[in-house]
Amino acid sequence: MKRYFREISVTLALGLVLLGLAVFAPAFYQPQPLLSLVTREAPTLVIACGMALVIICRQIDISVGSQFSVCSVAAGLLAAHGWPLPLVVVAAAVIGAGLGAVNGVLVAGLRLPSIVVTLATMVTLRQGLNLLRQGEFVNLPDGVQWFGLSQTAGQWTLVGAALAVLVACGLAMRHLAAGRWVYAVGTDAEAARLAGIRPQLVTFLVFVLLGALTGLAAMMNIVQSPQVQPLAGAGLELKVIAAVVVGGVSISGGRGNVWGAFAGLLLLACVAPALTHLRIEAYWEKAIQGAIILLAVVADGLRSRPGKGGRG
Amino acid sequence: MSAPRPPAAWKAALLRHETLLLAVLVAEWLLFYHFGTTTNRRGLVVGFGTLDRQFDILRHSCEIGLLALALTPIILTAGIDLSVGSLLGLCAIVFGKLWHDGGLSIPAAAALTLLAGALGGGLNAGLITRLRLPPLIVTLGTYSLFRGLAEAITHGAVTYTDFPASFLFLGQERWLGLPTQAWLFLLVAAGVWLLVHSTTFGRAFRVIGFSPEGARYAGLPVGRCLALVYVLAGLISALAGLIYTARLGQAKADAGTGYELFAITAVVLGGTSIFGGRGSVTGTLLGVAAIAVLKNGLACLPVVIRMNAAEEMSGLLTGVLLLAALTGSMLPKILSPLLRRAQSG
Q: What's the pTM?
């Protein structure tokens, strides 16, 4: 109980928000808009799973938004060139993994701090994409939107895929040796090395995995509309990191799980609709997001503060 | 094994990071001078090689330069502040709002804006020193919070304009031969240089950067030193916000977006270790100059003008430059074991 305090408190907060919406804005629960909301968040959930792993490993990646845009445009162009859809999905994941590998080599291979490395790759990728594409939209051929299924079937497919990634990550982190390695490296890289784990390899691999999941998420995003927007991923990194940190993954590594990140994401996803239903202007969304990140880390800080009340 | 002999003094001076960076800067400047200067149909020299353009470079580098100066002590303590660009934007909006809607005079509004900047820095400082939270995540949160507040105040659309000429003088005119804001920049640079290089605070920053626990056991006021650098960063960001507003003649919510990247790049390029403990203000100033010349020089190259891609090119090259500088700073550490093995083997 005490061990999962953060996960439980986030879930309770989510429950309260959902309850509040049920009382004050029952329109929120109409099935079709709710399914649309959940579908919109599905790609973010996939990235959040990868980001949770990276942060548990005591690293961070703020280039996911740019990776997302690059993968979206690349996948869109491949689809427009007539590649079959399954192949495009694989290609998007491979391109994402390649971009993640660049971060991984710089962080794990050269032992550079991940925040500065990914700040640099974030801008390099974003501006490189702008330079090559000049903000042009990519028109997708018929049969790509919703994988050629009906809209409802396509939405359920995306939600199902995102949940499958979540469950796979959750189980792997708990029951596979590789999952425990990530916790070990995030807790104490030197101790992990002495225990026979290769910390640099684990760090490299979590970046590659995050890249691959970002590519997959980009694919899950572009099938939702007939065009690919090159700016789709701008600011995504903050949303994902906020979800993960709010969900109880400790920024100093080694603590948290993807289930908490899931609850954190749902909580943040409810903020925008709650704002609209409570008639607060939407301009506040970014400020509220920042405030929620700060609240979450302050909660962590208060609990782990040495010698103050002995909580945590 | 005997200790390696210290190299001759002139050799050491020649191989210092700042000297190398100065050489790179001169080479870069000459390249742009050669390729970016043209003569137009009337026989006038236009492009990079004009005095006006050089003043422009100085004018444009002041805001990023101020943020880089603010970041130098922070990075010396092994911290980071990602929120400086957002705070610049928030302060520009606060200033515009106070003057335009609040009916305050320019000096009063400017003073309150500086106070707001110090408060913003104080929020970072409080969370980092009181709760011992990592600066990275705290300033990532305030990065979003400050920009979000700026957007909320302006509803994402309002831009404050029509500032009086006496205020615009700060950003658009010259005083004693130099762009006005350059004097403020030089003043802050001198202040930060003194703080970092000739006070006990500066020494404390380095010690904290090397080992915060060690600094604490040595009796240094770690919390107070850290609070000082973050509050100072907030104050300098506010000043940069004022200068930005005066230069463009308008205060808008997206002021300074992405400036933190340029500022961090300038500091790292200037030889300050991102892991803390080592670095100099002189290096930062050279780094700022290198980036400013790059940004403005690119805009003068005919090929970039044809592509209409100055913004993208400068962002792209700055990102690559930061990666190259980081990699370069790590190379000796990675190569030295290999070299030693090769020598002994």
A: 0.87
